[in-house]
Each structure stands twice: as C-alpha cells, then as structure tokens.
Amino acid sequence: MPEGLRVIAPGVASTLQDAGRPGYLRYGISGSGAMDPDLLALANGLVGNPFDAAVIEMAMVGPTLVCEAETCRVALAGAPFAMALGGRILDPFTACDLRRGDRLTLGAPRHGLRAYLAVAGGFAVAPMLGSVSTHTRTRLGGLAGEALAAGDLLPLRAPVPAGRPLTLPLVHRPRLGGPIRVVLGPQADGFTPEGIHTFLSAPYTLSARADRMGCHLDGPAIAHADGFNIVSDGIVNGSIQVPGHGRPLILLADRHTTGGYPKIATVISADFGRLAQVRPGEAIRFEAVSVEAAQALAREARRALAAQLAALVPAGGGDLDSGFLLACNLVGGVVSATACEPAA
To answer: pTM of the predicted model, to two decimals?
Structure first.
C-alpha cells in the first residue's frame, strides 16, 4: 500500500503549492504557487528539501493529518497555527518526526492567515505543466486540481533524513505588520490626483471576498480621471485594479492573466508575504516607493531569506549536525536568494 499523510479534516483552503508554473501566462494559465515564497523556502529548508518543493498551504484553519508511513518528518512555517501531535503542543518553525498512526492537528493561528507544512522528501504527486501547484478554477495540479478533502492520501517520496530535526531560532523568524509598499502604475494616470491621495492616505479593510485569486478592499472610493475601462492588458502578481465602484482589488497568485480595469499600483515582491498574512477585517495602508527602491528591497529580502536558511540549527541546541546539513538541499535556496535578478 502507498505510504503518506492521510487527510482526516482538510481545514480551510488547504492546497498543495510549490514555486508555481511560470512561463504560461501567454496561454492564459495562471502561475499559481505559494502566496508567500519565502515561507515556502523556510518550510522546505527545515526538512532538508529543495526550497521550491511542494508543501501544504493552509489558511485560517489547518488540516488534521494522520501518518500512514513508518515515519516522516514535517515542519510548519508561517502564521502561528495551533499545532499538536496527539496531546503535545508543537512549535512552528521546528521540524518534528511522526510515526505510523500519529495524528497531527493544525487549528487556527493566533494572528496572521497562512502557513506552510513541508514533509521531508516531498510529496509523490505528478506535476502538471512543470508544477504541483493547485489551481482549483482550472483543476490544474495538486490532487486532481482540488483543495485537500477528507480521505485524501498525500503520498511521500522519501524516508526521514538522518540527524536531529532543525529549528529556526526565534530571533530569525519573520515578523508581520507595516504598510504594504507599492510602485504606482502602470495606469496611475487614469486616476485624479485626489484619487491617488486617497489610495495612499486612507486605510482599507480586507473584505471577506478574498482568496488566492485576489482580495477586495473596503474603504473610500478612488476617483478615476476618465472612466474605468481600458483595453485589457497583462496582470502580474500584486496588480491593484480599481473597478467602477472605486475600491481597490489586489490580484494574487491564482489571478486571471489579463484585465480591463485600470491598475493604480503594483505591490512590490518584498511585501507579498506580509500581504498574504492579512486577515479579513484587518486594515491595510499603502506606501508608494520608486522602482529603484522596490528593486533594492527585493535584493534585501533575498539576503534576509538566505540568512534565515543559514541560521537553521538542530532543535534542542548543541553543535550543528554536519552530516545532516550536508545531506540537506539548502544551498539551492541560498543561491537562488542572492542570484536572482532584482524584481519590483
């Protein structure tokens, strides 16, 4: 029989995600992938995987899973979801080993919205168009293109690596909060100066109409300069459209690929993770930065991720287990974090 993690309860919007499927936007296929790529890398780093391996992305309430393998190593990175193994409370950002029959329960986070559960060796799920990422609207990726459901078995690729589980010390763990930084445009001239001022000065609240495709914001209307329709053009992760009602709509990982509403701004890549942790009902403020500043912040974020991956240590303290670290594929994450082209 195949061995893996059995889903007892799926939680809310739990899906398999990896680094996504770039290169298909021209065909109308969304890139998908983890809403927070840095947490994807950290979760995988904690269990010795390539930083872009597939994980379980969860939001608001996590799944309950039972281990149906002799053993497997898991780690959670992200919002502090209540996590228990049997009756034992587990620490996020710390890997742990499950044995056959163990039940892992992930409840709701104290704050934040999303987290990522990685398993050592990854999931034995066939990619579609080069990615395991689930896009439920087109039924691509994951398990038959669907969110996790009770009864699903997530098959495992490999046994637990040798050595002690890793942890990320508290001082290196991500922190939330602060304004969401944006680059104005590409259609900022489609709004009045007053409209731009409203966008950058007023608080907006994340509405309940939010998912991996996009999030609607409630707040004061933004004034268009000359109507709200444009010739449809490309949409990137973080594009902020303003439809006719004047309230912003932020397009996210599972976005459609083109749209006909003017885009007042684009969220910078360094802030994707913080945006992914905003809960419905919470307020967002926007801060405009230049393209050059956005590129500098992207490089800074990559250096910070590299430092976090380098800071992983065996749980419980003590000297680094060099044999285990050499067996881990952590270098790929560090190299990617420093060698990528700067992005806005």
So the answer is: 0.90
